[in-house]
Request: fold
Amino acid sequence: MANDLILLLLLSLPLIGFSINGLLGKQLPKIVVGTLATASVFGAFLCALVLFNNNHGTHLVTLFPVLDVAGMQLNASFQLDSLSIWMTLIITGIGSLIHLFSMGYMSHDEGYYKFFTYLNLFVFSMLLLVLGSNYFVLFFGWEGVGMCSYLLIGFHYNDAQKGIANSLAARKAFVMNRIGDVGLLFALFMLLGHFGTLEYTKIAAQLGNNATGSVAITAITLCLFLAATGKSAQIPLFTWLPDAMAGPTPVSALIHAATMVTAGIYLTVRSNFLFQLAPTTNEIILWIGIATTLVAAFMAMRQNDIKKVLAYSTVSQLGLMFVALGLGAYTVALFHVTTHAFFKALLFLGSGSVIHGMHEEQDIRKMGGLSKLMPITHLTFLIGTLAIAGFPFLSGFYSKDEILAHAFQHGMLVYSLLMIAVTMTAIYMFRLYFLTFHGKFRSTDEAKAHVHESGLSMTLPLMVLAVLSIFGGALNLPGIFLHKSAHWFDHYLTYGTKGLSLVKAEHLSATNSIALMCAASAIALGVLAWAYQTYVKKGNTAHSDETLQGWEKLSNAKLYWDEAYARLFVEPTSKVAGFIGTVLDVQILRNGVYALADSLLSSASLTKKWQNGYVGSYLFWMVIGMIAFISYYILKFALWN
Amino acid sequence: MELILLPLIFSVLAFVIPAAYTRLFGLVATGLTLLVSLFHLLGFHATHPEQLDLGLKIGTFQLDGLSILMLLLTNAIVFLILLANYARSISGEKLFTAMTLLMQFGLVGVFTTNDLIGFYIFWELTLIPIFFILYWYGNFDNKRSLMQFFLYTLFGSLAMLVSVVAIFLLTKESNWEALVSADLSSIGSASIWLMGGFLLAFAVKIPLFPFHTWQAETYTKAPVAGTMLLSALMLKMALFGMLKWMIPLFDGMALDFWRWPVVVLGCIGIVYGALIALKQNDLKTLFAYASLSHLGLIAAALMIGSTFIYSSVMLQVVNHSIVALGLFLAAGIIEQRLGHRNLDQLGGIAKVAPRFGFWFAVLTFVGLSVPFTAGFIGEFVLIKSLFDVHNLTGVIAASTLVLGAVYMLRAYQNSMFGPSTVTSFQDLHWNELLVFAILGIAAIYFGLSPKCILDFVSPTFDHMQQLMNSSANAAL
Reply:
């Protein structure tokens, strides 16, 4: 009972923030707006902590039925279990840090109150998504976060230079997400048809009768995965995420790195009882994950926009999580979701601090030497870089290591491909770090004079996230380090869950574990040394886009992926639409009707009146007469029959 | 009874009232009618339909859940249309006000009559005022497109008239309950033809592909108020006619015969309308084709039918009225302020007119059926019904989710976002703001509790289903 109330409080806090700021925000001073928004999310975080503490297995809370008909009972109900509570902790925890950061970052923005209104609405939708006890509530949240994402990507739609580009990026994100949403919609229809319910626990309970690999389950899981590729930016629907960097940087950190883009992973983990029965789907997930992580890492190598590098990096890391899902290592995927939320939020906020300090400059070719000018940002960004590159004993090291260990057990091919991706990750991240913070300042002296470290509301979240990025790995230490408290996270997630049969991590032999860790560490350290040599000692800097050759050009041009989509899908659709609109609809159908009408009327010798415009009134009286005539007979018939 | 006669009385009064007060009179009259109907709602129970008898054989009227919902919708929408156009010169016109009120009378009659012949007469009656409004206030440079609309509707109506007369001669009945209980399928394949007559009239009015060619031109060239009347109310007559008359009367052989043709045409319309909307430059034309797409979905799902789908159709009907009114109002506002509606010359309005930008955005999202708006549940149920009947029709229907996002956001962004090309744009007047706010709040209210509409109409459809079943049993 207590948990029910806390859950309601948790859900309503962001909603209250949204309502007050939305209705009154314009009149309120900025500090009130920002504090209210941040406090509501932080309050939700405290609620989540209480729930985390009280977690005793699956607990359902039903509020009210939305639809109640035979074969389709859709409830607004929620499910508290390890998985949903953990996601809630990430969303509200990272969320409140990013809200705090935004108070500083957006302080000069005229749309300040609007920004926090949207942000709170986003947090609410995201909470619906993870806390719902059925696919219907999830779908509500799923569409809701898509809408908030749209609003926030296109937040600066009025910008003189970038306004149009921003709103186009927002539209692209919305439309590509909608393609994924169609997949989710069909999955819902099939689940309803097959199980007669959308409740996770009820579906899981019915699954005994379904044979592994049945067509229905495979179709359902493929549709769910299509939805996941949209929200979590996987091939083929990943191209919206890099463009989504048009949004303000806190948005990129919260929505497009730490929370919303992991919704696809959450969906898969939540539906793991279905995916475990669909080996074909898992194989597809595995290879899509591998392809995405490689392609995105490759594209990140020669990007020069600080946020674009991080965006492709996010796509690549999400791909890595899908590899884990494809291998059935659900807890591992969530572990990486968690550490990634720490260090990627840190990196994005760090880049935001840089952009803020550099007065909206995002091109790393115009940066350099910022380590002295922005010491806190520099140090925390370094920690984030080391964590994502897999530097030994930082958080990313552990979560990546577990994915690699599973890949290793699956086979050498998958393992080697992942090692390539991991190497590329280290390369582009150290390139980004060194070009931004070391070497000479490459812009004008005047610009240099204006560079400043950010205020406390921005640096404080950076410091908290840096600490989490360092120690986050302690959540799930491998068995070779500690015997007693090892794999805490695996145990936590699998504890007392109904309808959630998470596969436990497989354990390698101690020798193999150590060998894999050494290999990963060697790569991180080796690339670090090489990058230091290249970008600091030799002073290499990024070249302008035109001079790039070979693979560098391909990476910089993102493999011409967007152009290919334009050629394959957008242009043909546009041509067909144009043909239908002008030729088929107007010239053939409409003019055909005209011709028919003309011939009919000329036979009634009305052609002249047609042309001089009297025909309208003529026709009118004709109709009046007709109606009167008909009515008379009908009335006569009806009344005196 | 006053529910039905009030608009007629006001319509006549509108001629007498001094011209200076016409504007106010229209607003007060429709507001009063709306209040009376709302007041009536208080004493209404959906499970107990009310009979209203004028003492004539064809003059029976009935208020059940379905008809009172349509009645309320009509009264609310007509009021909102007059309110939305309050600041425009058109609402000062005696003839316009009188015609709109006459239209309201016709619509109310269509929605409340319990008699097939009465239905036909009211159906035809609505044609007269809309014709005058289009003819006097429209922008029809040549009268051809107006003629096209008129001829189309006329042919459809004539086809229906033949069916109405034939049914009357066959059964000697025109009362709804008697007709539904009577078994028409006993006349064999002739019932297919009779239903075809109804279907043609409805297909033109909705419109269903390929009977839609009058729509884009008429919507585009009509005055804003006329477009609103056409899209938010008149085409609902056809959906209502299908639900109340066509389906229960022809349940059985004829309905089975026509089911797939209509589903296929509806599905074609969904994609066809959406694709054309992608490329339109004129906002009103764009929304006209969008309407073709949305209505295709409703008509197709309606033919698949179950009482629950019918209730969801009513939810979508209400939603579509809200969206159509809001979007055509937005297009009208842009045209009034700037003198054109061409997307390629618009941009940046949101910056100079933030209130308009906000409310237009709200209505755009309502049009996209995002969660917490009226369209979300309705669209979910309708697409599911098409998916259940055949996976392919479900896939085609779902394309509206993606294509709809493209054309709706294009329409909104190209006009409202980007660098400002307009320097001065009068933000919303009080009356426009009020209309947008009412529409937006209604959409969110029905989005949060779709049950209030579903539960309101479902007893009517249950009752209808019982009558249909009993007639089917009698046939066995």
About this structure: Chain B touches chain A through 73 residues (CB under 8 Å).
